[in-house]
Amino acid sequence: IREINLNAKLILPPCSISQQESKQI
Length: 25
Known about the structure:
By secondary structure, the chain is mainly α. The protein has helices at 2-11, 14-24. It is built from two helices and no strands.
């Protein structure tokens, strides 16, 4: 799962990353 998150962070923009992180938390 962590590997997928790292790849997603590299592909998706910072906005999407912050949204995903807030949802995970």
